[in-house]
Amino acid sequence: ASTYSRIGNTYYNKHRYQEAVAPYKRAWEIHSSLGDYGAAGSDLMGIGNAQLDSAENDLAAKSYQQALHTFQQVDSQEGLAGQASALHGLGNSYRWLSDYVRSEDCLKRSLKLYSKLKEPQPREEAETKEALASGYADRGDYDLAVALFKELRPTLLALGNNVIAAYAAMNLGLLSQKCN
Fold first, then answer.
1. The model's pTM
2. Distance CA 84, CA 68 (A)
3. Considering only CA atoms, which of 96, 177, 175 is closest in space to residue 141?
4. Nearest alpha-carbon partner for 81 in 118, 108, 53
5. pLDDT tens for each residue of 105-150
């Protein structure tokens, strides 16, 4: 099963998203049959990520929803982290489907789960906040978006996530113009 996961990862990393889905699905089938729900949830996340990056947003939402349910069967910190990650993916899917209410709900639930983890995951929390801020901007809630991007940018820089920090700065500039 892990070989299929690695094959999916290889295709995904080469931006061959549609080709990544089949090996991830095979890995998921095997992990599920073995009762390895943590690995099965990770496989579903791979499927969802590949679908999202292929602009198959409806399919991605279904995969992330299935990953969320799968990670709920994992009674550990890994299960909580998986649920937070699945909610982040689900929130992004809903955002691209212009379902901003569901997107915001999922992203906020993701942040709540990240805050419950024994080991903080600042990069994942920051990326979730960035998705939430982008959703606010998409739906025209510029004041909320600006406030969150302002809060977020120093954290991203401290984490060394310069690409998303630059994206946050760019959005902050664009949104500041819209607010004036």
1. 0.91
2. 8
3. 175
4. 118
5. 999 999 999 999 999 899 999 999 999 999 999 999 988 988 898 8
